[in-house]
Specification:
Shape: elongated
Helix content: under 10%
Radius of gyration: 21 Å
CATH superfamily: OMPT-like
Mean pLDDT: 86
Strand order of the largest sheet: 1-4-5-6-7-8-9-10-11-12
Number of domains: 1
Number of helices: 1
CATH topology: Lipocalin
Order of helices and strands: HEEEEEEEEEEEE
Number of strands: 12
Strand content: over 45%
Structural class: mainly beta
CATH class: Mainly Beta
Length: about 250
């Protein structure tokens, strides 16, 4: 982690005096992410559960919003905020003990997963013409909770939680087709340290007209994180669409 922060920070310091917006810029967008979940969760008892096959979790709702501010001051970084909330629930059957739930010959369960994250990204525009390149650092406030409840019987409950603030590298690139308003791009956050890792990438096509910006693309988020004795090792991916305004 320390090496990642030092390397990224050094790159930012080198880029800072030479890359900045020509004018003040402000933008905001909201998006819908049709996400699917795969992977495992483990808790302090040593039990492990497959969130897709055992719990049959399905996408209920999600919220995604972003806001950015760019300015012409060379030394100070631009700022971007991103918020993501993924909520999934399902009804499945446990084939092995998990948390405080003793299975025996099998237990029907109802499960709920809430995954919430807020990103504070500080970045510089390394290139700003028909080829755009941004480089920065993100502080991600990540919290997740998986609740598994037995249906009937003793109504046993298991709760798996992760909660952390993680430093991540940030990289964004976009290629504009001049005079058309059409562009393609990709952006991502990433960190890997001591067995834990988190990667969040998306690729998109974009159309911009006046102050309106429309995007469609694909997003993949991979979380392998252990908090005390609870662990989430999941992947969330799927297509997304977004609409926003830029000034």
């Amino acid at each position: 982690m320390r090496n990642l922060i030092v390397a990224a920070g050094g790159s930012l310091l080198l880029a800072a005096p030479f890359a900045h917006a020509d004018v003040v810029g402000l933008g905001a967008s909201v998006s819908y992410w049709d996400s699917e979940l795969t992977g495992e969760a483990a808790d302090k008892s040593g039990g492990e559960v497959d969130v897709e096959n055992d719990l049959d979790l399905e996408n209920d709702s999600n919220a995604n919003a972003s806001l950015y501010f760019e300015h012409p001051v060379p030394v100070l970084p631009n700022v971007r905020l991103n918020y993501t909330l993924v909520q999934q629930s399902g009804r499945g059957e446990l084939g092995a003990n998990f948390g405080g739930i003793n299975v025996g010959s099998g237990v029907d369960v109802r499960s709920e997963l809430d995954l919430e994250q807020l990103d504070f990204t500080f970045y510089y525009e390394v290139l700003d013409n028909w080829v755009n390149l941004d480089l920065g650092l993100t502080a991600r406030d990540l919290s997740g909770e998986l609740v598994v409840r037995e249906i009937g019987g003793a109504a046993q409950v298991s709760k798996t939680e992760v909660d952390a603030v993680l430093p991540m590298g940030y990289l964004a690139a976009r290629f504009d087709l001049p005079l058309t308003g059409v562009s393609i791009g990709a952006e991502g956050n990433f960190v890997s340290y001591s067995g834990d890792s988190l990667h969040d990438f998306n690729a998109y096509g974009q159309f911009e007209m006046a102050v309106i910006q429309l995007r469609a693309g694909y997003r993949q988020m991979s979380i392998d994180y252990e908090d005390d004795d609870d662990r989430l090792d999941v992947e969330i991916d799927g297509p997304f669409v977004s609409a926003g305004v830029v000034f």
